[in-house]
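new request in #modeling-help
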Amino acid sequence: MPRRHIRTLLLSLALSFLALASAHAVQPDEVLADAALEARARAISAGLRCLVCQNQSIDDSDAPLARDLRLLVRERLKAGDSDQEIVDFVVARYGEFVLLKPRFLPHTLLLWFATPVVFAAALSLIWLAHRRRKAAGQSLAPLSTMEKRQLKRLLDEG
Amino acid sequence: MIAETGHYALILALGVAIVQTLLPLIGARVRDPQLAAVAAPAAQMQFVLVAIAFIALTTAYVTSDFSVANVWQNSHSAKPLLYKFSGVWGNHEGSMILWVLILTLFGAAVATFGRNLPRQLKSNVLAVQGSIGAAFLLFIITTSNPFIRLSPAPFDGQGLNPVLQDPALAFHPPFLYAGYVGFSMAFSFAVAALIEGRIDAAWARWVRPWTLAAWMCLTLGIAMGSWWAYYELGWGGFWFWDPVENASFMPWLAGTALLHSALVMEKRDALKVWTILLAIITFSLSLMGTFLVRSGVLTSVHAFAVDPARGIFILAIMGVFIGGALTLFAWRAPLLGQGGLFAPISREGALVLNNLLLTTACAAVFVGTLYPLALEAVTGDKISVGPPFFNLTFAPLIVPLLLAVPFGPLLAWKRGDLVAAAQRLMAAACLALAAVVLLLALNQRGPWLAPFGIGLGVWLITGALTEIAYRVKLGQASVSEIGRRLGNLPRAAYGSALAHAGLGFAVIGIVATTAWRSEAILALKPGETAEIAGYTLSFKGVAPRQGPNYRERVALLEVTRHGNAVTKLTPSKREFTVERSSTTEAGIQASWRGDLYAVLGDELNNGAYTIRLYFNPLVRLIWLGALVMFFGGAVSLSDRRLRVGAPKRAQAKAAAISAAE
């Protein structure tokens, strides 16, 4: 195995242990004194992905990189940035991969529209099937008086 | 010698599986019933052989035979006995053996108990089941053989990932697999029906018990995984929309839809083509789950090894089975024909709505899980799809479904009366609304939507009770009449009411804990106290302790409430010596109000420790709900009408009753 591969392997092993042993997320020294600001920090953090973890937000992860990002978010908040400005800043730095909720862009159109399209398609298929049956004259007409009488006679006999 | 026996048994099982696949199909072609009859004993034989292989591997684990490479890699002599057992499936090779063991168990069960199945259908079902077995046995023998020896044998093993050394996780895979693989039965029945080009209500009656059993196991398997994540990962989350979780959730959604559409097919002979397609889709999603988890496309705790050869092999298996089944479907489905008619407002209509919403929700999860992989493969762009996306797309589909659930069982077959159903549900709706109003008045914090979520859960529970009350004519008939009706009500009715109520419990648990959990992140020195949700916790300090195969540092927190001692919490951090990694064990005090949850963090410079406290209100209801759903499935499964070979008399009686209505 070439040395580069071994290094990658070791690195990914180390990272996966970091991810597994997580549990510690926000540290006491990170928490902002201003409760409203801290609440905003938590909300922003929950939407940002920890880049070295498996599908965890930086709010849930204790990886050093996640801590750096949490501190960064809080610093920008204290500097008076809006939530949107902070998210934009992080995306500019780390790319779109950091967003747990993908942005609405040409390459995510399919992602966002797939579910409504499936729903609409399924609904129209059901409607078409229903109409085809109706058109075939198979609609459920209520029993006529004649038929009701016949049915009653049959049931009474039985 | 034992390992070689296991290896040999696996290869024999492959041979038997090939015979089980080919002879019945040839027999059907040349009209030789004796060739077709080979399927049943072959299915039983295949199970016995795979069981021998499984027992051989288990023996190697329990006796710590480190000359077997798989045991050396995943076990250690100092490991507790339970985890020596669960270590068998705590790795890729062993878990695939478990997969095939359960597959052949289902096949053998059909061979043994399916005496009332038509001969042709039975041998075709077993042939399809045999072909799945053959594919996976070939996969194990060529790419994932657990019986390879090491020479010289190492002195001791490398241990099992500490995260997997846990009681709930020991039994999570067998249940999950029983669910995944159980849906292969529905698949085999569907393909067999397509091969014959004939299908009727009896088909649905035969396929339902197997699907129900698989669904029950999958429900429990998912709940165990979620429970484990809750107490082990250390921040009290219970569902993360992780790709691996989604991989098990998609077959569950599709399987739930299948259970309901098979009901329509059994009772009304309608939705035949759709039910067949859904059976194929459900098992395809199970296969995809196996592929996603086993191939290493998603790297996580579950992907034990990343090996492209395995990924490509499973992808090929998927391609052949899914592609083959869908081709057969496109070719033969038009032969199946239309079934009974029904008006849009009817029991059938309600079940169509159920299927529409469940399969669309399943599609939402599917797209969210696979889109990042597909996008990266096509354009190279890397994006993340996380919980915010799933909550946004999943909830709008599931909330209307949950609102509609109580209506379904109250609508008549063929043509229902929505107004009458709504009138019957009046009491249930009032109770749910009362819960909403009460909570809105009391709600100090948390989102304003939360009381409505709780109301939805209450609505599901009261709605389920309404169904039973309506069917026994509560408030109309005399007490003795009600008692008689309660006794006569088919178990399936109790089963579905229980399952729907269980869903309600789970909804309440999810909403309550998400909206109203409290959290405190503290740096505590020994002797200091903290308060959360009415509890006072005093931190006594941290002490070391030695476990069987780990060392841990245990914190002691004494909990009081209104001055009365409640309990002592002992969250800890474990260092596993052999595996050289650590886990966090939360200290949890469970009560009906909710869970008090404490996690020990690192020691800080000034002698203080990071301690995290959570109070998760009503969180137990999530898993209690899943258990109730499982139990509802079991009650329904014990209904004599569902048992294979139900007496004809019951059928005739039921027909007379529905005619009288």
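bot summary: Chain A has a mean pLDDT of 78.
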